Amino acid sequence: MSKPKTGQRTFSFQESVIREMTRISEEAGAINLSQGLPDFSPPREIIEEALQAIQKGDNQYTFTFGSLAFRRAIAQKYASANQIHVNPETEVTVTCGASEALMNAILGLTDPGDEVIIFEPWYENYVPDCLMAQAPIRLVDLHEPDYTFDPQELEAAVTPKTKLILVNTPHNPTGRVYSKKELQFISHLCQKYNLIAVCDETYERILYDYHQHVSLGSLEGMEDRTVTICGLGKSYSVTGWRIGWAVAAQPLSTALRKVHDYLTVCAPSPFQSAGIAALGLDQSYYQKMRQQYAQRRKILLQALDEAEIEYYKPEGAYYIMADFSSVEWDKDRYQGKGYSSDRAFAEFMAREIGVAVVPGSSFYMDQTKGTDKVRLNFSKKQATLQRAAERLRKLRTK
Ligand SMILES: Cc1ncc(COP(=O)(O)O)c(C=O)c1O
């Protein structure tokens, strides 16, 4: 009897390398700085709201696009914090995490063959999302050492088939925060070539030093051509609650809402109620959160400085791209398995140093890029990072 065959839609991409590093980390008993999930608790107030919501019976489907009270809270937050003005009835869609909102936008706003511009290195979902939507990808380099794009290269990537441009600020994996000038150039291109910007602003609240977050959707002329995506996960340390949203003008929202409706029906009800409490937290919460992240960043940057490892100093989000080309390590032992140098180095890090990191090439389409880099994540308790820093001191440079 012949065996059933799977579809080919998923053949062109691999399972996430980050999950693989998490598995190796567990095997090796390493401190896992690969996956971007906090090991500390969310604010107590919002946990209580979630518990109460369950007890009060908030356990069934909400309205598909999210409870109206939560959508109103989101619209209010965008008006006051992002200078984006939307109608909560028709222009806010609550989703299962920012991840789902991204997929809804890409599927809802493209036809097969429409091209999507992505800045490289990228957050790992963008490429599989586009491949599943059969939307060819045009990559634009974020150039080292400061991960900025060349405006001419960006404009050259636009073709008559370009439909979307995906922008992620603050940026994963580099920690870059796009400047207003860069966003103005992207806005100019969107208007010149009639493109839609899909803006992933998942880390909008996590900023360092003097860096400010600007929403591309708030720039003049972008009102009708921007989907702004965010969620509760990173700002409130509740990545497992799976609450995200997409904010966009009605015609764009109408298209992406259809995907959302048939994909997931609605996001988890009790966590939408808790989301209202989260968005209602006062400014002191964000100030404290930023101070704590600044402390966490400092611990790892100090450890890298001591080990004389170069890195890009993150301006936002909670990742560091570090350059391990100066490190002495047992290349032959780990590269013998046929791995790229960064994948082999990441395995060396987990097994010999006891700190799991993500190989740099996993953020690039061309696997020869990023091979001298690894990404470390510092959304961890200071004590966890201190232990990781102790271990990083074992590294020796040439
Ligand atoms: C840039 C970026 N966008 C989206 C997501 C996914 O967010 P969510 O957990 O809300 O789906 C992540 C998660 O790490 C991310 O780093």
Quick structural gist:
With 398 residues, the chain is of the alpha/beta class. It has 13 helices and 15 strands. Residues 36, 97-99, 123, 168, 172, 200, 202, 231, 233, 239, 244 line the site of pyridoxal-5'-phosphate.
Known CATH architecture of the largest domain = 3-Layer(aba) Sandwich
The major pleated sheet works out as: 7 strands, mixed
- Please estimate the helix content: 25-40%
Q: Given the structure, what is the number of helices?
A: 13
Count of beta strands: 15
What are the SSEs and their pairings?
Layout (H helix, E strand, L loop, with lengths): L16 H12 L2 E2 L11 H12 L12 H15 L9 E4 L1 H13 L5 E6 L5 H7 L4 E5 L9 H7 L4 E7 L11 H14 L2 E5 L25 E6 L12 E5 L1 H15 L4 H11 L3 H24 L3 E3 L6 E5 L3 E2 L2 H5 L5 H13 L1 E2 L1 E2 L13 E5 L4 H11 L3 E2 L1
Parallel strand pairs: 1-12, 3-4, 3-5, 5-6, 6-7
Antiparallel strand pairs: 2-8, 7-8, 9-10, 10-14, 11-15, 13-14
Helix pairs in contact: 1-12, 2-9, 3-9, 4-5, 4-8, 10-13
Bound molecules: pyridoxal-5'-phosphate (PLP).
Task: Describe this protein's structure.
With 398 residues, the protein is α/β, with parallel strands linked by helices. The protein has 2 domains: 17-42 and 284-397, Aspartate Aminotransferase, domain 1 (Alpha-Beta Complex), CATH 3.90.1150; 58-281, Type I PLP-dependent aspartate aminotransferase-like (Major domain) (Aspartate Aminotransferase, domain 2, 3-Layer(aba) Sandwich), CATH 3.40.640. It is 40% helix and 15% strand. It has a 7-stranded mixed beta sheet, with helices on both faces. A 4-stranded antiparallel beta sheet has the order 9-10-14-13. It has a two-stranded parallel sheet with strand order 1-12. The mean pLDDT is 96. Bound molecules: pyridoxal-5'-phosphate.
